[in-house]
Amino acid sequence: MSESEAVVATRCAPWDAAALAVHTVGAIVRVNDMLAGPAPKGDGAVPVSAAGYYAPDARFSPEVNEERVRSAVEAAARRADAGEPGRVLRAGWAALRERLAVEEGGRQVVTRHGDPMSLTDFLVTRVVEAVLHGWDLADALGRGVWTTRPAWIWWCGWCSARRTGRRWSGCFRGCGPTRP
Predict the structure, then answer these.
(1) SS3 string of 91-148?
(2) CA-to-CA distance for 178 and 134, rounded, in angstroms?
(3) DSSP states of 41-55 as a string?
(4) What is the Cα–Cα distance from 118 to 101, expressed in whole angstroms?
(5) Apex CA 32: angle with CA 119 and CA 36, to 5°?
(6) 45-91: per-residue pLDDT in tens?
(7) Are 69 and 15 a contacting pair, CB within 8 Å?
(8) What's the whole-model pTM score?
């Protein structure tokens, strides 16, 4: 992404491309931080599912959404250059790939909102985030969508089965592969 592309608006205001790229990369590499420590001890809280993670509750309240955007905008303003999110993603993904090779999918993690989840369910949310935000970034920058046909089919099935796709329908109308 060039410096001029970084300030391009996206269909999902108030995000611009720079802040959305920082947010998306952070959402993926955050898994490394979650796995750095020991697995949380069960305190009796019922783990949230991947679909439940997107429940329209405090996690997506106006205050939490404002903080999510504000922190990404501030982080984007501090980046060294427009290519930094890509470099961070490459390094973070390399470390995460190694870590995931030895982790068990049933391992519990705690989201930044305090939700206990299985690692597998949390990773599903990271795929959803990467697909949605990747489409929006591609659209804003006038680039082709990166998702493959199998990923698109999986995502559509996942959202349909869980009825989670409705939240984003306005933002992503016309985005994504036109012929899954």
Answers:
(1) HHHHHHHHHHCCCCCCCEEECCCCCEEEHHHHHHHHHHHHHHHHHHHHHHHCCCCCCC
(2) 15
(3) PP-SPPPPPHHHHT-
(4) 16
(5) 90
(6) 888 998 888 888 888 888 988 998 899 899 888 888 888 888 999 99
(7) yes
(8) 0.78
